[in-house]
Amino acid sequence: MLKRVLLVGLILGALALSGCLFVRAPETGVIEGYVTNHLSGEPVVGAVVRAWPMDGEAPRYTVISDYYSPTAVTNSDGYYRLVVPEGLYVVEVRKEGHATSRVEGVKVGSTTRLNIVQKPVFNPNWPVEPPEVTVTGVTEGMTITEPIEISIEAQGPNDIQLIYAAFGKMPGASWLTAPREVFFSTHSTGTFILDPTAYGVSGETTLEIVVYDQNDNRTHVIFHVYVQPAETPATVAPPSLVPGTPMARAVTLSKQVAFMALEPEAAPAGANIYVELRWAKSPDDVSDPPGTPSPTLTGYRVYRKLADEDEFKLIGTVAAVGMPEYTYRDGSADLKVGVEAKYRVTAYKGEAESEYIEASTTPLPPWDVKLLEPADESTGVSLTPTFRWQPTQLVGEVQVYRLWLWDAVHGWGWALISPTLQNVTECPWSQLYVYPEYPTSGTPWERLQPYRTYEWYLDYAVAFDAYPTWTAASVAVNDGVTKDFPTVLPAEMAQFTTGER
């Protein structure tokens, strides 16, 4: 008997040494995405991203190989990639000078796309531990057949700033993630109702919660749930295009706009892009009164395929509420300058889904403008000056500008404005007019006043791929001129003093 055991041991040892003995490793999956300072904002470069199982307290794997890579460092685009066994994970991002961002409940099967927001710290002397979040009323994998009552408690070394909650998406600032529930300056939401019909979700989806503390540390909790679909009709009529309006429009901003605080900073290429989709409702989208959940349609599904991808992916849903038109903004960090994004929108109810409508757009690069003449703090300027500026680069086919001139002595009580200027980088004094009293007659004065101080700037500088019907725009300046784009501050303002003539 002993000889037989020894013989078996020798055989197994020999097989192992020869590579003929295999022990099946667990199935692995990939977690990948971008770390940005808000949605499609500036990439966070050099951040350390770690993943560990939900039932663990720290990373279990320390050896990084092609098979197991639970740790990564974001590259120049903010991109990271982790390789871990299948299961539920915590993913955490840390970087010096930045608040910590943690995502709990990341489900890994094959490839999981997870874009993560990580903000600079508000105060470097405050703690950078993310809040601990406790949620009652929802559990992983639960089936939801009606509105649910949930409550959220958040605790941490810093006071809690914001608590968000939504079905089917990562909730955050209203501009890109409405609708969502939001609670300000409280560690407890109390019990509130979350209704899946308000989000147009059905079948397998998520319930997601995001909590920020006062130092911008962030915890994102994901529950994978199943929302009972509505009764399936025989057919569903598709949505349609809005007459005279392109379905998809990409907007690139030259200023880094935090949509919560509207604080502009310089934006690098490829950052601060969003695509706005608009479509007209399906004939099956009937609601009385309009604006309330439709009993005849669940909602609309939005699919996207980037130029370097093989197939369309579901990126969002919009609840059907009987409105004539709908808007969806895609602010994903996956959007890139020069990379075509193709979209499809369908209507659905239960298991029935309509034919799709489709459109594509290609984001333009960011750009800016510099004021040349009269230069800032210049003196002896002509009483009939010509104003000149220069774009940092030529973007798109058409660049549109508008100029303002202020009497610095009288401030906001007196101003001249130019007409809309296309593909030119100068404006003579004679083209300015008093706004709004003389919109076409030009300035009523022959010249400026001698030895007087004035200020001028561009309140609008936007590049388009086509004009006025456009599918991509790059906004250098928009000081509230149009509601097509969020308000950003002007690029700069130049002050000058006139001479004698």
Structure overview:
The protein has 501 residues and is mostly beta strands. Strand 30 and strand 31 form a beta hairpin. The chain has two helices and 37 strands. The strands form seven sheets. Strands 17, 20, 23, 28, 30, 31, 32, 34, 35, 36 and 37 form an eleven-stranded mixed β-sheet that branches. Strands 2, 3, 5, 6, 10, 12, 13, 15 and 16 form a nine-stranded mixed β-sheet that branches. Strands 21, 22, 24, 25 and 26 form a five-stranded antiparallel β-sheet that branches. Residues 1-24 and 260-270 have low confidence and may be disordered. The chain folds into three domains: 28-227, Immunoglobulins (Immunoglobulin-like); 248-361, Immunoglobulins (Immunoglobulin-like, Sandwich), CATH 2.60.40.10; 369-498, Immunoglobulin-like (Sandwich). The radius of gyration is 28 Å and the shape is globular.
Going by CATH, what is the homologous superfamily of the largest domain? Immunoglobulins
CATH class annotation of the largest domain = Mainly Beta
**Sheet with the most strands, sense and barrel status:** 11 strands, mixed
Principal-axis shape equals globular
The number of strands is 37
- Rg to the nearest angstrom? 28 Å
Number of H/I helices: 2
Distance between the termini: 116 Å
CATH architecture of the largest domain: Sandwich
Helical content band = under 10%
* Strand portion: 35-45%
Q: How many domains, in number, for the residues?
A: 3
Contiguous low-pLDDT stretches (5 residues minimum) are 1-24, 260-270
Structural class call reads: mainly beta
The CATH topology of the largest domain is: Immunoglobulin-like
